[in-house]
Specification:
The chain has a domain at 64-192: Immunoglobulin-like, CATH 2.60.40.420. Helix content is 8%, strand content 33%. It is built from two helices and twelve strands; from the N terminus they run H-E-E-E-E-E-E-E-E-E-E-E-H-E. The protein has helices at residues 2-11, 171-175, and strands at 34-35, 71-80, 85-88, 100-103, 107-114, 120-124, 129-131, 141-142, 144-147, 151-158, 162-168, 179-185. The strands form two sheets. Strands 1, 2, 3, 5, 7, 8 and 10 form a seven-stranded mixed β-sheet that branches. Strand 2 and strand 3 (85-88) form a beta hairpin. It binds copper (II) ion. Residues 86, 120, 168, 170, 173, 178 line the site of copper (II) ion (CU).
Length: 192
C-alpha cells in the first residue's frame, strides 16, 4: 500500500499541470513529457524496415501564414483507463468545460501533452495547423496529429472565426469525453 501510494503520488503530480481539473477522470500526469514526433508508432519500433515519422515531413508549398505565434498554451490529454473516461485537461465534454477561446486571426502555439498510456489522434475542424518542426516556412501541415503516450506535440495555427470541434479521432474516446470546442471570435467580441 505504501509503495502503491508512492507510485500514485509520482504519477499524479498536479503541480505539473495546474490547469487540469482534479478528479477521477485523471489517472496520471506525464512526469516528463517528451517530443516523440521522431519515434515510430507503437508496435512499429522493431519491424525491421524504415518507418516514416512526423519529423520526416516537409510541406510541399510555402506555409500560408509564417508569423510566429502571439501566445502559447498547453492542452493535456487526460484519462482513466479503468473507468474508461477520456478528456482534455481533466474535463469530459459532458461536464460542460469552458471552451478554448481564441481571437480571429491570432496565431497560437498549442502544445498537446499526452498524460495517458495510449496514442490519441487529435483532430481540429476547420483548420490546418503546422507542426513545429521542419524548415522555416515549410512546416508540415495537418488537421490531425497522433500524440504518443507520455509524448507532446506542438503546432501553430491561425484561428478562423467560428466554433470548431476539437476531439480525439478514436470515436470511442470522443464519445467517452475527449471532445472540446475551439471558440474563435472577432477581436471586438473577444470577451464574449
Ligand atoms: Cu483517444
Amino acid at each position: 500500500m505504501g509503495d502503491m501510494g508512492g507510485m500514485d503520488m509520482n504519477m499524479l503530480d498536479w503541480s505539473k499541470a495546474p490547469q487540469i481539473k482534479k478528479g477521477p477522470g485523471v489517472q496520471m500526469i506525464a512526469p516528463m513529457p517528451m517530443d516523440r514526433t521522431g519515434d515510430p508508432g507503437l508496435g512499429l519500433e522493431s519491424v525491421g524496415h524504415r518507418v516514416l515519422v512526423y519529423k520526416d515531413l516537409i510541406a510541399l508549398d510555402p506555409n500560408p501564414d509564417p508569423r510566429p505565434p502571439d501566445r502559447a498554451m498547453d492542452i493535456h490529454l487526460t484519462g482513466n483507463m479503468e473507468r474508461f473516461i477520456w478528456g482534455f485537461d481533466g474535463w469530459k465534454f459532458s461536464e460542460n468545460p469552458p471552451a478554448y477561446s481564441f481571437r480571429a486571426g491570432e496565431r497560437v502555439r498549442v502544445t498537446l501533452v499526452n498524460d495517458s498510456m495510449m496514442t490519441h489522434p487529435i483532430h481540429l475542424h476547420g483548420h490546418f495547423f503546422e507542426l513545429v518542426h521542419g524548415p522555416v516556412g515549410y512546416l508540415p501541415r495537418k488537421h490531425t496529429v497522433n500524440v504518443m503516450p507520455g509524448g507532446k506535440v506542438s503546432f501553430d495555427f491561425t484561428a478562423e472565426g467560428g466554433d470548431w470541434a476539437f476531439h480525439c479521432h478514436m470515436l470511442y474516446h470522443m464519445h467517452a469525453g475527449m471532445f472540446q470546442v475551439f471558440k474563435v471570435r472577432p477581436v471586438e467580441g473577444a470577451a464574449a
